[in-house]
Each structure stands twice: as C-alpha cells, then as structure tokens.
Write a structure and sequence with these properties.
The protein has 380 residues and is of the alpha/beta class. It has two domains: 8-141 and 347-368, 2-Layer Sandwich (Nucleotidyltransferase, domain 5); 143-343, Nucleotidyltransferase, domain 5 (2-Layer Sandwich). The protein is 42% helix and 18% strand. The chain has 16 helices and eleven strands. It has helices at 8-19, 73-76, 81-101, 112-116, 120-131, 140-150, 209-215, 222-238, 247-251, 262-272, 279-282, 289-300, 304-308, 321-334, 347-357, 360-368, and strands at residues 35-40, 44-53, 56-66, 105-110, 136-137, 162-168, 173-179, 199-205, 255-260, 286-288, 339-343. Helix 8 packs across helix 14 (321-334), helix 10 crosses helix 12 and helix 10 (262-272) crosses helix 14. It is globular. The model is unreliable at 1-26 and 366-380 (pLDDT under 50).
Length: 380
C-alpha cells in the first residue's frame, strides 16, 4: 500500500496553530521552547510539536499519516514487512521535523500493534537505528490516562457528573469512566499529572478498527455484518464489571460520552455534511444518540466505493469507518448517554501536557505558585 497523504485534520492543525498566539508576551528575541509528542498506533503515525501557553499550549506543527502498521497482524501475530516500511517512512519524516524544530523535550510512544506483535521490540530497534527515534511502548492504562488528559477541556462539568471517554484505535479501544465532580480537575497546568486524574474505572479491549474490520470482512447483508461487529464488542464490554458503581449516574442522565478517533471524527464530518474536513467545526461538536444512529445508517446504505468518495472519509478509511461506528454503537448501547462530544484530540495532547508540566521551568513556577490540574489546552 502506498503512503497516504497528510490528513486534512493535520493540515488544519498546522493552520490553526499558526494563528493561535496563546500565552504571555515573551521578551523580544526569546524563543519559546518546543515540545514534541509522537504517537505510533496500529493505524496512524501522528506528531504534534507545540510551545507552552498560559493555559495549555500552542501547536506550531502537526503531521499525520495512515500507515496501517497492524495490517495482517491479527492473523499472523507479526508486524508485516510492508507495514513496517510504511511506518518507517512516516517516522523518518517525524524525525526530521523534530530535529528541525530543535525541541526541548520529546516523548515518542507506541501502542497496541507494537505491544502485542511478536516482533514488536525488533521493529522498535530498527526504528531507532534508521531514524534515531526511541519509541516507548506504553501500557493500556497509560494510554487511557493520556487520552483522557488530552480531552479535559471537552468535559461539561455543569451538565454532567461523569464522562465516558472512548478512544478507538486501530488495534485497541480504551474506555475510561471519569468522575467530573472530583475537584482534582480544577486548577492550573503546573501540577498536571495524568495518573492523578479521577478515572474511576478503565477498560482496554484488544479490538480496534483495523482488527475488527479484518475479523469481519464486508460481505452479505450490511445490517447483519454490522450487528456482528457490534455484538463482538458488546460481549467484551459486558464482561467488565468494574464500572457498575457509576451506573446510577448514567441512569439519571447526568453523563456525557467523549469520543476520540479518526472514525468518530469522520462520522461527525459526515453528519455535518462537510465538503472538506474542518477540525474547527468537528472538535467539540455535540451529537445526540439519534445523530449517531442516523449517520451510521447513511454509511450502511453506501457501497465501499461511495464511502471512499465521501470527503471526510476518503479511500484510506472507507473500509474502517463502519468498524469504528460499530465500536461506538456497542458502547452507546451498553452505557447510554444522551449526549456525545467529538474530540479531534486525545493521546498526543495528553503527552504534550505531561511533558510541559514536567519541564524544569514549570516545576520552578509550581514551587512559587499553587495550582491544580490543567486548564484547557490551547490546542489546534
């Protein structure tokens, strides 16, 4: 498979970051430090480079490629050579951009594909040799914490007492039940630590859009095929008992869902009828449960070629977007929320916040001034 072009979302982030001046005025000639967050997932390779701002950060560069690192891995247990080559091509671009920006701090992580592949560690050694990048395989729990951290300013704490954050990846899906009444969400970025977020329960399922689509090839009646994917995910959620203590809050309607993934942002773009993906219109968009049902039914009525022609889906997501819709549907049926909020942000933003909070300058500022958890990130 040839390398995919940069996504519209990444290009929009570049433009938004360039416009967003955020933060306090610097002394003339003093350049702000840059920080880089790199996420190599099962489906995508994504990079954000940003500078600190008063209430978060300002993005100065964004890059995204669909690499499908996990393609074929569910059946073989190994990363395939062609998939590793695609990922390496993207990682070399990331390495050059990081070098050019002369970043003050960086964190590069790998998730489900490298976690579970029998040759995952060998691939990361090859990455280090060929690009100079040293990728860290994070745990599912760390992945969930960072995804929640990146979505903090999308929580409606006046209208909700709890939030369910769903991070749909290529090879895994993380669900995090967050207590919005906890005052640990108050304060400033100076004391931000992802592991202290009030996540009351979390579930990592080893199924994402790539693995689910490969397990359920698109054949026969679309409704039957789609419901088979929903049932697969629903069974995994039903086997998880540790969030049940929050069930009364959901029953009372004092909750919201926050969905972060390319599949969910694609659904949002289709719902809005966008002729071109526009992150400013998608990120933070509220959808009702009925909205999600209607856009899914519209997708099921399209052929794969017709899906590929949709401007917010394209050929690289045409065979994956309904797998993402099935995961979302399974979550919404198991944990009903009247409102869902779309997040074109997540793990990388969480990485940036944690990097900046841990920087020596932030730590010195922390000793001079008390604070709590982060305010809204000024992300593009």
């Amino acid at each position: 498979m040839s390398q995919a072009p940069t996504t519209d979302g990444a290009r929009q982030a570049d433009r938004d970051g360039a416009r967003n001046s955020g933060g306090r005025e610097r002394r003339r000639g003093e350049a702000p430090p840059c920080y880089a967050a790199l996420d190599l997932g099962t489906n995508n390779c994504r990079l954000l480079i940003a500078t600190p701002a008063a209430e978060g950060f300002r993005i100065v560069e964004a890059y995204s490629r669909i690499v499908r690192l996990g393609e074929g891995m569910d059946a073989s247990g190994h990363l395939q050579e062609v998939a590793m080559d695609r990922a390496l091509t993207a990682l070399k671009v990331c390495s050059e951009r990081i070098r050019r920006r002369n970043v003050a701090g960086m964190r590069a992580i790998a998730t489900q594909a490298c976690r579970s592949a029998l040759n995952g560690s060998h691939f990361l050694e090859r990455v280090h040799t060929e690009t100079g990048l040293k990728l860290e395989i994070i745990t599912p729990k760390q992945e969930a914490q960072l995804s929640v951290a990146g979505c903090l300013n999308l929580f409606d704490r006046e209208g909700s007492d709890a939030a369910l954050v769903i991070d749909v990846g290529g090879g895994s899906t993380e669900l995090s039940w967050v207590d919005l009444t906890d005052n640990g969400l108050d304060g400033q970025i100076g004391r931000f630590e992802p592991h202290r977020l009030p996540i009351r329960a979390w579930l990592s399922m080893p199924v994402g859009v790539v693995t689910l689509a490969e397990r359920y090839p698109e054949t026969g009646d679309p409704q039957t095929w789609f419901r088979a994917m929903v049932a697969d995910v629903a069974a995994r959620i039903a086997a998880f008992p540790h969030a049940e203590k929050l069930r009364p809050i959901f029953a009372a309607g004092r909750t919201q869902l926050v969905g972060t993934s390319g599949a969910i942002t694609s659904l949002a773009g289709l719902h809005l009828g966008l002729r071109r993906y526009d992150r400013a219109k998608v990120d933070g968009l509220w959808l009702t449960d009925q909205d999600c049902l209607e856009v899914t039914e519209r997708l099921l009525a399209l052929t794969p070629r017709e899906r590929a022609a949709q401007p917010c889906i394209g050929p690289d997501r045409a065979d994956l977007v309904l797998a993402g819709a099935a995961i979302l549907r399974a979550v919404q049926e198991a944990w009903p929320c009247t409102r869902a909020r779309v997040a074109d942000r997540g793990l990388r933003e969480g990485l940036l916040l944690s990097l900046m909070a841990a920087s020596p300058k932030r730590r010195r500022r922390r000793r001079r001034r008390r604070g709590g958890a982060p305010g809204p990130a000024r992300a593009a």
